[in-house]
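Figure 2 data, in text form.
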Amino acid sequence: MPVMTIEQMNRFLAEHFPQGEKFGVLTGLGDSWAEMKLPVADDHLRPGGTVSGPSMMALADVCMYAALLGQIGPVALAVTTNLNINFMSKPEAGRDLLARCSLMKVGKRLAVGEVWIRSEGCDELVAHTTLTYSIPAER
């Protein structure tokens, strides 16, 4: 059972990480998972009309942050210690990106999760990301 509701998480993110909204909007939050949507805009694009790698990495990172805090509560200082991304295919032109994070392990000091990114309305995987987060000693 998540510790925070989607409404609580959205309030927390707006207060503590307001710049995060340019990296995606939280659309779902549950037990060990989160979902986000990136409304793709011109500033997310790179030459050639595709979504930039840094935009997809940021979407994955914020999605993992939301999934983790949904489990451990509002721990603002939980931070990324590793992010590995594999770009699988070019995002569909003119479509928003959807991300889903699934937490694989949440320990006392580290958490590991995966994020899958797809273009909205498409089954083909755009990117697959694994992330590790450090959780501060005092919660």
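Caption note: The mean pLDDT is 93.
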